[in-house]
Amino acid sequence: MLVQHHFIENSTSVCPLLPTDPPKKPDPVTSETVVFWGLRLWQVIGIFSMFILAVIITLCCIFKCRIPRTKKEIEARHAQRVAAKDYANTLETVPPLNELTEIPGGK
What we know:
This protein is mostly helical. 50% of the residues lie in helices and 5% in strands. The model has no long low-confidence stretch (mean pLDDT 78).
């Protein structure tokens, strides 16, 4: 069996290393760095934060999302709901106005 040996020439002996400039470091990111559309980083963060806050406030207003903080508030809210339900049920039993009163000039 024949074994072949491959020799690779060392490239440093053929061509000496030339001095090159070190790679340029990227500019550090600061609050004044322009991110996109000509807006600075602090402006982008502010706009994004206001958008998120507006979404949270809108959702809380739509779904009436408020968590009571104390047991007393929880009990007061429950009593208020029960009273509102009882009042609504009472209103359903009231007869219409035309059955309760005599209309002048009517039959």
